[in-house]
């Protein structure tokens, strides 16, 4: 365009030429360049662009299919997880119930064991008390008998050496003493 203006300025002033209309040789060369560019785009660029778009389309469709498959697998895994969780909760409830029952059994057994142990200890203590009572009674009788014989001998003024007679007197005295205690109760 600049070239056309320069040539227009160089032309003689007598010819009237419109500066907005290009010369014929510019139109022809522009048309040749345009046809070459169209041919190159059509034969080289368009097939490559079509191939690239087809590959991208296939990749996108493949990714969509993979995403759908992954979503199905995720849903299946979620269902499986939910089922396992429900099963685990049910088993936990059973275990908790079993532990509660076992705890009740253990407490009951412990109470029974404690009661039987207490009864055994009580019976043993009663037997020991009775044995100690009998021992104390025998010792008391012998000591009371000896004291009674000694006191009787001091009162009478002679010694009572007959053991059988002295034992009979002591036994009779103690029996009367026990009878008076029982009557008082």
From TrEMBL:
The keyword ATP-binding does not apply. Residues 60-98 form a coiled coil. It is found in: Cell membrane. It comes from the Bacteria. Its main location: membrane. Signal peptide: none annotated. CDD domains: ATP-synt_Fo_b (cd06503). The chain crosses the membrane at residues 27-46. Gene3D superfamilies: F1F0 ATP synthase subunit B, membrane domain. It is a single-pass membrane protein. Keywords: ATP synthesis, Cell membrane, CF(0), Coiled coil, Hydrogen ion transport, Ion transport, Membrane, Transmembrane, Transmembrane helix, Transport. PANTHER family: ATP SYNTHASE SUBUNIT B, ATP SYNTHASE SUBUNIT B', CHLOROPLASTIC. Component of the F(0) channel, it forms part of the peripheral stalk, linking F(1) to F(0). F(1)F(0) ATP synthase produces ATP from ADP in the presence of a proton or sodium gradient. F-type ATPases consist of two structural domains, F(1) containing the extramembraneous catalytic core and F(0) containing the membrane proton channel, linked together by a central stalk and a peripheral stalk. During catalysis, ATP synthesis in the catalytic domain of F(1) is coupled via a rotary mechanism of the central stalk subunits to proton translocation. Belongs to the ATPase B chain family. F-type ATPases have 2 components, F(1) - the catalytic core - and F(0) - the membrane proton channel. F(1) has five subunits: alpha(3), beta(3), gamma(1), delta(1), epsilon(1). F(0) has three main subunits: a(1), b(2) and c(10-14). The alpha and beta chains form an alternating ring which encloses part of the gamma chain. F(1) is attached to F(0) by a central stalk formed by the gamma and epsilon chains, while a peripheral stalk is formed by the delta and b chains. This is ATP synthase subunit b. It comes from Microbacterium galbum.
């Amino acid at each position: 365009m600049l070239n056309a203006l320069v040539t227009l300025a160089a032309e003689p002033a007598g010819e009237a030429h419109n500066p907005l209309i290009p010369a014929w040789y510019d139109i022809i060369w522009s048309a040749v360049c345009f046809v070459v560019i169209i041919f190159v785009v059509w034969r080289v660029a368009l097939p490559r662009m079509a191939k690239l778009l087809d590959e991208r389309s296939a990749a996108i469709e493949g990714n969509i299919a993979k995403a759908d498959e992954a979503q199905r697998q995720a849903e299946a895994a979620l269902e499986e997880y939910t089922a396992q969780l429900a099963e685990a909760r049910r088993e936990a409830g059973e275990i908790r119930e079993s532990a509660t029952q076992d705890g009740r059994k253990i407490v009951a057994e412990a109470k029974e064991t404690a009661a039987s142990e207490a009864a055994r200890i009580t019976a043993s203590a009663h037997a020991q008390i009775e044995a100690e009572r009998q021992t104390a009674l025998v010792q008391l009788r012998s000591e009371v008998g000896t004291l009674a014989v000694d006191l009787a001998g001091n009162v009478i003024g002679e010694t009572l050496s007959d053991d059988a007679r002295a034992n009979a007197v002591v036994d009779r005295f103690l029996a009367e003493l026990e009878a008076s205690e029982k009557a008082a109760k």
